[in-house]
Amino acid sequence: MNGLVEQAELHLYEVCSRGPAVFGLDSRITTHRLSDRSVSLLASWPRLVLSLARDLRRRRIDTLVAVESTHALYAVPAARLAGCRVIVWEHFNFHTDLGKRKRRWGRRVAARYADDVVTLTERDLDLWREGARPRARLTAIANIAPPVVATPYGIGRRTVLALGRFCAQKGFERLLAAWALVEADPRGAEWRLTIHGDGPDRARLDEQSASLARVAIHPPRADAFALYEEAGLFAASSRREGLPMVLLEAAAHGVPAVAFDCETGPGEIIARDVSGMLVPEGDVPALAEALLTLMADPAARCRMSEGARARARTFCRDSILARWSALLRLPPPPAVQSEADESAIEQGGRHEAA
Predict the structure, then answer these.
(1) In this structure, is residue 2 part of a structural domain?
(2) pLDDT for position 42
(3) Can you give the pLDDT at residue 344?
(4) Quick one: 174 and 294 in the same domain?
(5) DSSP state string for 126-139
(6) Which CA distances in Å does 18 have to 15, 31, 37, 198?
(7) Can you tell me the distance from the alpha carbon of 32 to that of 59, in angstroms, rounded to the nearest whole number?
(8) Angle, nearest 10°, between helix axes 122-132 and 101-113?
(9) CA-to-CA dists, residue 184 to 155, 176, 267, 284, 293, angstroms
(10) Euclidean distance between CA atoms 58 and 119, whole angstroms
């Protein structure tokens, strides 16, 4: 939204306020609340639909973007009542619902009644086609990577870094099982594993790591980018992902990554054996071996560090904003005028989006 504010009048709708945006919101973006308190999306469905529809009409919104498919349940009918275009932006993958029926229902609504569905990966487009047979148009637009950092990669770094929520999805117990194999191998003798995060599995992970000599588990840090500057490798052990920001962050900092090749996400960020290594989903010994192989080969780590930075540039801000501008039929961003011109973007007059 911050990146598109030069091209459109933007409004941010919240079901209820949870305070200022953590990463900052441009002051030109107007925020609106649909409720003064937390509500059930299902129990409050009629009120949410009618309230949002009235406001969309009053503000003459051209396009409504529903962030995350659960919100399609009220956003899509509200947009239909208001007569505006509606885009549902998927942030997981089609097979991930985290046990929420609302998310599955939202995807059905989006597939049938939205104008567009945006996924984070090309692979997820296939999952939507196979699982939903959508009438909506499908487009894959990745997340934006942070700016590439110029700090040279240090071959003397001996830390494997992992970040994320301590829950079943992220699979940190699988990483610790792989690390036990690393500690038993001489190639990993000088290396340590540092994990930052929190969540319901914290106690179990503490117990599992108690027998390991070179593991440290810490709470999340606000200055997480500083951790990448100290890391020699990044490890990702997720069972499922949308498009993991931690891998984009690692790439932008030139940190080679080793990851399970789960259904969506890592395979579209890591260029195999160029910016990191992908191993079969769930193969813990293969994860350990990939880490050990890179630990023993500083030349490969340096080469993959440069490959990671190059890969991060393909997810740069200008490239991703150009794709959103094309989808929203906005004038192209100034920094990517020529790239947008090639897409033959249809330009209109006054544009508004929410």
Answers:
(1) no
(2) 84
(3) 31
(4) yes
(5) HHHHHHH--SSEEE
(6) 9, 12, 9, 20
(7) 11
(8) 90
(9) 22, 13, 29, 14, 14
(10) 29
DSSP 8-state secondary structure symbol assigned to residue 272: B
CA distances, 78 to each of 11, 82, 108 (Å)? 15, 6, 16
Q: For the stretch 166-186, what's the b/e string if a residue is b when 16 or more beta carbons lie within 10 angstroms of its beta carbon?
A: bbebbbbbbbbbbbebbbeee
Q: What is the CA radius of gyration of the chain?
A: 22
pLDDT surpasses 70 at 101 = yes
Residue 150 lies in a domain: no
Q: Give the C-alpha separation, 330 to 324, whole Å.
A: 8
Distance (Å, whole) CA 295 – CA 281: 21
Confidence of residue 351 (pLDDT cuts 50, 70, 90): very low
Identify which of 237, 149, 225 has the alpha carbon closest to the alpha carbon of residue 193.
237
For residues 123 and 191, membership in a common domain is answered with no
CATH for 90 = 3.40.50.2000
Are 267 and 123 a contacting pair, CB within 8 Å?
A: yes
Question: Are 305 and 194 found together in one domain?
Answer: yes
- What is the extent of the structural domain holding 323? 9-144+316-353
Do 304 and 270 contact (CB within 8 A), yes or no?
A: no
pLDDT at 340: 35
Q: Which helix (H) or strand (E) holds 340?
A: helix 337-342
The verdict on 203 and 82 lying in the same domain is no
Residue 312: phi, psi to the nearest 5? Answer: -60, -30
Domain count, the chain: 2
* Same structural domain, 191 and 284: yes
Does a structural domain hold residue 3? no
Shared domain for 128 and 219, answered yes or no, is no
The 10s digit of each residue's pLDDT in 136-178 is 999 999 999 999 998 999 999 999 999 999 999 999 999 999 9
pTM of the model: 0.86
- pLDDT value for 46: 95
Smallest CA-to-CA distance from 17 within 33, 28, 29 is with 33
